[in-house]
Design a protein that fits this description.
Elements (H helix, E strand, L loop, with lengths): L9 H43 L3 E2 L18 E8 L5 E7 L5 E11 L4 E10 L17 E9 L4 H4 L11 E2 L4 H8 L7 E6 L18 H45 L5
Parallel strand pairs: 1-2, 3-7, 5-8
Antiparallel strand pairs: 2-4, 2-6, 3-4, 4-5, 6-8
């Protein structure tokens, strides 16, 4: 075993400790990527099922003070009422499909039964000073029936968007039905709807694109990659050990050969 005494040198002890630390770390990273793969796959399946489902009246899936359930997110719903442009607000720092920064237009829809549904009518550019209420294209006047995707109330925890105090008048950071119910003094259905129909015409807000599929297979590939790395690390360590043994053996042979040569006369 004296051949392996070099493993007790400072250099090899550090290298071995690094290898020992890397293996479980890479295995854990592989499991984390597997968890992300399952999460993204479940979300993709949820969105796909919701978008395929037949439209239903929004009142069937939500009511004042009720949170939109995970299973009902992205469901296509319909609602009939009148847009209340006097209490319209815009949601700051939102991007469109081209990653341009602007606003989402949040307009209360007063339903025929007196309750209120929050409708995100779409995106408009942030032209001019953002300290002022932007010019917002008007929605159809009178009673209208809209179709859209049901969404849950936005929170800082879920979105990463922070509430900011002292915003300009009629501007918000998050869409939250409880906050809007307090502001409007009316029963507001939980969550909100991203309008998909009637489709935009003329200078109406730009429609929000459908939720895309997350790249779950990429996480699966990363999972395999991390576990292959975990398997390759000890193999690489053993390769270095074998190379060190060969180098030491070759050096020892050269030293022996030099000692065996007769001194020059």
């Amino acid at each position: 075993m004296h051949r392996y005494r070099f493993l007790l040198t400072r250099q090899w002890v550090i290298l071995t400790l690094v290898v020992i630390a890397l293996i479980p770390t890479m295995i854990r990273l592989g499991f984390w990527q597997h968890h992300r793969y399952e999460e993204r796959t479940a979300r993709n399946n949820l969105v796909a099922r919701a978008l395929r489902a037949d439209p239903v009246p929004v009142e069937r899936l939500t009511s004042p003070g009720r949170a939109v359930t995970h299973a009902d997110k992205y469901r296509t719903v319909t609602a009939t009422g009148t847009f209340d442009t006097a209490h319209e607000e815009v949601v700051r720092r939102r991007t469109n499909a081209d990653d341009e920064v602007g606003f989402h237009v949040l307009t209360p829809l007063r339903l025929t039964d007196g309750r209120v549904l929050l409708v995100n009518r779409g995106w408009i550019p942030a032209n001019g000073a953002q300290t002022e209420f932007p010019k917002v294209p008007a929605p159809p006047a009178g009673k209208v029936t809209i179709t859209g995707r049901l969404k849950a109330d936005e929170t800082t925890e879920a979105s990463g968007i922070k509430q900011i105090a002292g915003l300009p008048d009629r501007q918000v950071m998050l869409i939250n039905s409880a906050d809007q119910a307090e502001r409007l003094g009316a029963p507001v259905l939980g969550g909100y709807v991203e309008q998909t129909a009637p489709e935009p015409r003329g200078d109406t807000p730009e429609q929000i694109s459908s939720p895309g599929s997350e790249d779950a297979p990429l996480n699966y590939a990363y999972m395999i990659q991390w576990w292959l790395f975990a398997a390759a690390v000890p193999v690489g360590w053993w390769f270095l050990v074998r190379r060190e043994l060969r180098d030491r053996a070759a050096a020892a042979e050269q030293e022996s050969a030099a000692e065996a040569e007769p001194a020059a006369v």
